[in-house]
Amino acid sequence: MSPTSCPKPASSCPSSGEGTLDAGAAHVTVLLRETLDWIGPKPGGRYLDGTLGLGGHSLGILRATDGQAEILGLDRDRQALALAGERLAPFAGRVHLDNTSFSGFEAAMDRLNWDALDGAILDLGVSSLQLDNAERGFSFSADGPLDMRMDPGSGFKPARVLVNKARFEELRRIIGEYGEEPLAGRIAKAIVREREQAEIDSTARLAEIVVRAYPPDRRRQARNHPATRTFMALRMAVNRELEELENFLARIPERLVPGARLAVISFHSLEDRMVKQAFRALAKGCICPPRQPLCTCGKKPSMKVLTKKPVIPEQAEMDQNPRSRSAKLRVAERLPLEGRA
Description:
single chain, alpha/beta, 15 helices
């Protein structure tokens, strides 16, 4: 993807034409207090919000520092970026927005001549702005085009292409692996059968196909809509979300100053597992075989894991915002350059 940069104060970034939406009301920021407590923002610090969304975490950092921190906010979603710019406009000059994915953070930092960060946040959830807009194609509860791209201008193919062109084996793998859907084979078979009759080009038709693929007793017992896992899996595949996360976690430590903290909020077991394993590997350093008596790889620990278990929302937050129920926060801290705590 060739990102369109807007490394300017928030109030200077162009509007997408959707600016009348009340950004604060459209999305409730998950684990805000806990994230700020762990990040510990300080006046004069530079912080990366790699998944800006509607700017909730960035707004929290700015308020916690009386507007004296600087924010680099990244998002693939142009509409969200414009709305966040409006929300953060009172802090003009302290907020820099860039229309790129979080894995493109290094180039975004270079455009600002930033060498290092005092903290970084990723919130890997899909915002209410995206889920509740049928035209974006993320939701199975309202009919819309089968798209699911975070950035329609990214060059990524929409979900419609994947659903109608992928082989049965690939669909089964995506739905089973990314969605952890036990009925992945049945669903993939139903998709292939139905697309032979007519192209599947709407979220409503895909959701109906998935529902019919579920046996009646499984439908009755399901806690969530039968299409939940399938839609999530397709969204992750379309936007290459796990690849983005893997690339980011491997490179972010080198841009953190010693003592800077990285906070990642995930909503999917695969994402949480990837974060957990990456943090452990960064804290271990050495990649030599376990039985080897002496280290020859030369790798030193670069991060210290601060959350032995993930932080989850309190019951009050889950009651207020049901979408926060699956959220898990993990935090790690950059070690001194010699790799010793």
